[in-house]
Structure of Caax amino terminal protease:
Amino acid sequence: MSSESLPTRRVGVFLAVAFGVAWATAAVIYATGGLANSPVVVPGLGLTLASVLLPTAYMFAPAVGNVVARLVTGEGRSNLRVRPHPSESLRVYAAAWFAPALLTFIGAALYFAVFPGQFDPALSAYRTALETAAGGVPVDPWTLVGIQVVAALTIAPLINAVFAFGEEFGWRAYLLPKLLPLGATRAALVVGVVWGVWHWPIVAMGYNYGFGYVGAPWTGFLAMCVFTVATGVFLAWATLRTDSVWPAAIGHGAINAMAGLGTLFVLGRPHSLLGPAPVGVLAALPWVALAAWLLLRADAFAS
């Protein structure tokens, strides 16, 4: 553990803003119909109020917390961690870009190995949904799956990183370094728990897990924290290795790009607490294994 003292005031201001802005946004979404019945605000595109507020006001709340904490406490612009340092960290960037796809695939395969009756290689439910949306015109779902996979391995992590930056500029570029006096391992774990709790209002409205599971929403709260702690260790490692927010933003974007792929193969209703998306505890096990390995073996967590 570092002898440096914990900057409690800066951490407190950051958390107050990051949670305050996000949870106030969740309150607005809840008051206007929740996630399921959010009003349409852009009719031409079918965008609802929730689909607009989540990737903007909610996801950027930690970034706002970073900026406000710096202004209020007089920290200024030191150590923003916005320089990418790509030439010095190509292997970290590669891991952030491609590892989420591999781990998501392994997690989905593990889920379907446990629940083989739910695996549908014909993509029946997805095919029906596509054809309904296309007015009955036959659609090949495998073509769209292929496009999604190619995008997830190429451009999608970079595009998604624009929105993921709103979270990573707060969690990994600000809160993580502030908690390093606890030691890198404890800091990464605490940030992962905080990140999971931050999601709780929208999880309570059905985000990721819906309502058809035992102990809703409390078990969803716990499952979300398993996911955020495990993936958070990986994102913390990428940040500590590069001293930059961008590998974490790209890794976060890559996770989001692949997260829903396994659900396309589900026949019937999935056990969302378990998978096949990586937010399910069973599908998250590859992430848990990677997190444990990094905490035990990576130099970034040696302190």
Residues 86-301 form one domain. The mean pLDDT is 93. The longest helix spans residues 90-114. The two ends are 7 Å apart (CA to CA).
